[in-house]
Amino acid sequence: MNNPVTRKIKRTRFQLTFTKISIELVEFKTPMSVRRTLMAIANSRFNKFLSSLGVIVALLATQLFFTTNTAFAKEKVTIAIISFSPYAPWYIVQKKGMAKDIEIDVQIIDDINAKNAGLTTGTLQCMLNTLDTVVVARSAGLPVKHIAIPAMSYGLDEMVVTKDITSVNDFPGKTFGADYGFLNHMWMLLNLKKAGIGFDEVKHAVMLPWDSAAAFVSGGLDIDVNYIPFSKQSLELPGSHVLKTSLSDRTWERGLISESMACNEDWLAAKPEVAKEIVRAWFEAVNWWKENPEEGNEIVAKALDWPVSDVKLTQYGAVMLNLDQNLGAFGIGSGKPVCGSLPNGAEAREVPAGSSGWGELLFDGAPDCVAGYVYPTWDVFGSIYKEAGVIDTAASTDIGIDTTILSALDGAGYTDRYSSNKWIGRLGE
User: Fold this and answer.
1) Residue 22 counted as domain residue
2) Which of 158, 198, 245, 409 is packed most tightly, with the most Cβ within 10 A?
3) 357 and 254 in contact (C-beta within 8 Å)?
4) Are 209 and 143 a contacting pair, CB within 8 Å?
5) Pair (169, 139) in one structural domain
């Protein structure tokens, strides 16, 4: 299998869109300058008409140029993602022309610092990354706001450990590999916090996912905190095993490993209708993919240069949230969070029994399955990262979260329209 683990996905892809434009005759009023020219010609001798005709044509052509270009101009929105299938519905938006009068430019940018820089300078309008990275960005003063949750880990993330490790209590003195200030890092910190282990009792080797997997296999790490497909490579080390997953750890009840759609706050304020349309198009694409998994998988695989099998593998462990589940996450209206609306076909045996204890430990005893979890989860991320020294000051939800777009989409009736709650890439189906 051509596994993306075997190639380092460190590239930025630029996609050029060529639009076929058909120009129709349009009726328009001539400006005063043109009328004055026409009057002058009417009162002149015929021999002056021909010399003046060029002036008329030029004036009319100028107006036609600006008229047609205004009519056919499309708003361009540049969105950064990583090479990861749960971020790829943008390619379906492109392929199917779902964003009305908007040209979506998708760029694959793995480096979170590069994404943040693009959002700050305005070369990017939005990005997809993990929720905890948006907390870090906002806490650093970047003008970014979290507006929606594209997907949530439901077994996609795995802690692969050496044969001598049987529980989190064995972690002190060990070395784990994960990116810095990224979901893998946060998941480890959450587990250390839950077990009462100091953050400094475990060594952190800062690595990108593919490098972490390779280092683990070569014996350089004791723990690889990673996600599929990279975590599967780590299992090539003899005796290694999966200690826990985001499914068994019940992170999906609180959005502790969830993705974020985040945009520049000034752009959101200046272009609310554009922002609304691209988010609407996203949910339309997700809904369409759920209803057309085979064609959708082909579109995504081609865009990412992945084999279809890898698209299905990553989607197996991810829940693509519909609009209603987003409303539940943000506590808007009657929306239900993922924990209260698992995808159709989720078997009871897949959901671990018993409480994970996240609510009791980190959320003041609040139930683990709760609507509006985004806000307390944001605060937990800020608190944990501050304690770990990743950030100095934690940004509040007041400045980091924007619910206006989700509320507008719900008010416009799109919750019912994009209501599919199916899995996308379940293996064996």
Assistant:
1) no
2) 158
3) no
4) no
5) no
